[in-house]
Design a protein that fits this description.
Elements: H1 2-17, E1 28-31, E2 51-56, H2 62-79, E3 83-89, H3 90-100, H4 107-114, H5 123-138, E4 144-149, H6 154-166, H7 186-205, H8 207-212, H9 216-235, H10 241-263, E5 269-274, H11 275-278, H12 290-298, E6 302-317, E7 323-328, H13 336-343, E8 347-351, H14 352-355, H15 359-366, E9 369-372, E10 384-387, H16 389-392, E11 395-402
Parallel strand pairs: 2-5, 2-6, 3-4, 3-5, 6-11
Antiparallel strand pairs: 1-8, 6-7, 8-11, 9-10
Helix pairs in contact: 2-5, 3-4, 3-6, 6-9, 7-9, 9-10, 10-12
Length: about 400
């Protein structure tokens, strides 16, 4: 007993002084270029994977969107992944899908009319979308893109209107002009829910005719837009802001599940969102985040990759909500980020799922790890953040040098 306690104390003291376990390097692969050709280290990991989760450390980093494009190219061409799911509204994603399927000619107009977030108004995202469009022109089996969100649902309303016009219905859809984070009165909440309820009843009562005038798949897709309105109506009736965040993640997971079922049992997808939504943890309030829901639904068929970076600029809102360029020019000594950098050449991929097969590494990775702070919409309060990275992810991808996103159509 005394010997065991002594070993534990030694291990714990080592952990406290440095968050780097050199044994982890055996599960790492260094790479230089951020291109699809660099990702062959994934080949042995994806044979049984249905959803590949890719978490970005910031929304405002150029390389993280480039990574989404190169990763999608690799898994589409080498492993048959034909679905890209991104952190945007379900309805907004439908309009992006129109573009990559060749149904709409102008991406800029789509982003201006049907996009609620700044993070996709970049040259990097344009490059991703144009690659998807070109891929679909050249291949018989197309890639589809979806959003999994329900914070802004006016695009879902517009898609429902388009479908009702297609099936010859003159039913008028009303409401849902506001988004989840606006002040919404009790009367508006009731009106939105009533609008959703009546719309759902319309679809149920007219299913046979609607399918006859479109198709079963078109009906199912339009009905899912209706269900997203129901999700929104539920979320806006939460009294606490944190509960809105909780329901956001609940519905992200539910919508990803619907997308996978819609495409069938053999479907495979790349799910791209912030680390906080991709990780297998309870980290966004009092409910499971989307990544943890996916782990419970898909088990080891969900493989999630976090990202971290060393140096560079990124765009994010400040703590007082001013859009600014932020810069990281040093890595705090003793952090997990510093550990990852020591493995790189200059970038590195670490297979945490493989590493956890080693008992001592499993214990090490189960402990809280401190890394340099990333950013979501807002920059973090401190330079570092501590969390269960090793437990929450199957792998982590470290990029040594990064740059800020480049705005498209700034004129």
């Amino acid at each position: 007993m005394k010997q065991t306690l002594t070993v534990f104390i030694v291990l714990f003291s080592i952990y406290c002084s440095s968050q780097c376990n050199e044994q982890l390097k055996k599960s790492s692969t260094g790479f230089n270029q951020l291109t699809s050709a660099s990702f062959s280290f994934l080949d042995d990991l994806l044979s049984d994977v249905r959803i590949l989760g890719y978490g970005e450390d910031t929304h405002g980093t150029s390389e993280f969107t480039v990574l989404a494009k190169e990763l999608m190219e690799y898994v589409a061409e080498n492993h048959g992944f034909k679905i890209l799911i991104i952190e945007t509204g379900f309805g907004e994603g439908a309009y992006l899908n129109d573009y990559i399927q060749g149904k709409s000619p102008d991406l800029r107009s789509i982003l201006e009319a049907h996009n609620s977030t700044w993070r996709y108004r970049t040259t990097e995202f344009y490059d991703l979308m144009n690659w998807l469009r070109d891929y679909n022109r050249q291949n018989a089996e197309n890639i589809s893109i979806y959003g999994c969100e329900m914070q802004y649902v006016i695009s879902d309303v517009n898609k429902i209107k388009e479908y009702l016009d297609r099936v010859g219905s003159d039913y008028e859809v009303t409401g849902f002009e506001k988004h989840l984070w606006q002040e919404i009165s009790d009367d508006e909440r009731m009106a939105y829910f009533t609008s959703y309820f009546k719309l759902k009843r319309l679809f149920m009562d007219n299913q046979v005719d609607f399918v006859k005038n479109s198709s079963q798949k078109a009906f199912e897709l339009a009905l899912q837009h209706v269900e997203v309105l129901g999700q929104f109506s539920t979320a806006i009736n939460q009294n606490l802001e944190q509960r809105k965040h909780d329901f956001r993640d609940i519905y992200m997971g539910a919508n990803i599940k619907w997308i996978m079922e819609y495409h069938g049992n053999s479907s495979r997808s790349l799910y791209w969102a912030h680390n906080s939504h991709v990780g297998d943890w309870v980290n966004n309030g009092i409910v499971d985040v989307a990544g943890h829901q996916l782990r419970k639904m898909y088990g080891q068929s969900y493989f999630n990759i976090a990202t971290d970076f060393g140096f560079g600029e990124y765009v994010a809102f400040s703590r007082d909500w001013k859009m600014e360029v932020h810069k990281r020019d040093k890595i705090v000594a003793g952090t997990f980020t510093e550990c990852l950098r020591s493995f790189g050449s200059p970038n590195t991929f670490v297979n945490l799922r493989q590493a956890k097969e080693n008992e001592s590494l499993h214990y090490y990775l189960s402990l809280p790890l401190t890394s340099m702070s990333g950013a979501g919409a807002q920059v973090r309060n401190s330079d570092t953040e501590t969390g269960s990275i090793g437990k929450a992810f199957d792998a982590i991808l470290y990029l040594d040098q990064t740059t800020k996103i480049n705005w498209a159509d700034k004129d």
